[in-house]
Amino acid sequence: MAKHNIKVCMGSSCFARGNLENLNFLENYIKENNLDAEIELVGGLCQDKCSTGPNIYIDDVLHSEMNEEKLKEILQTALV
Ligand code: FES
Questions:
Q1: Distance from the CA of 74 to the center of ligand 1, in angstroms?
Q2: If exposure means fewest CB atoms within 10 Å of the residue's CB, which of 10, 46, 54, 69 is most exposed?
Q3: Average pLDDT of the residues in 20-30
Q4: Span from the CA of 15 to the centroid of ligand 1 (angstroms)
Q5: Higher per-residue confidence, 3 vs 65
Q6: Where are the domains of the chain?
Q7: Closest ligand 1 atom to the C-alpha of 52?
Q8: pLDDT tier at 80, thresholds 50, 70, 90
Q9: Mean pLDDT in the chain?
Q10: Which one of 3.40.50.300, 3.40.50.10470, 3.10.450.50, 3.40.30.10 gives the CATH number of domain 4-77?
């Protein structure tokens, strides 16, 4: 299986809007489910889409207004 890439926008707007929590959640989720080999988690710079933040790119697809609930759903469906 190809490795999935999750890029969490760490620009100040997304960071303040919830990506700090989202990043913590992702780190824990990856650890708890032993997904280190399947998911590459990286931080990104502001993508000039702050108004729809917090933004997270999953396999280069932009997901806006992200929260733990939405992340969980994507992780459990799209990435398995
Ligand atoms: S801070 Fe994330 S798009 Fe600008």
A1: 21
A2: 69
A3: 97
A4: 8
A5: 65
A6: 4-77
A7: 3
A8: low
A9: 94
A10: 3.40.30.10
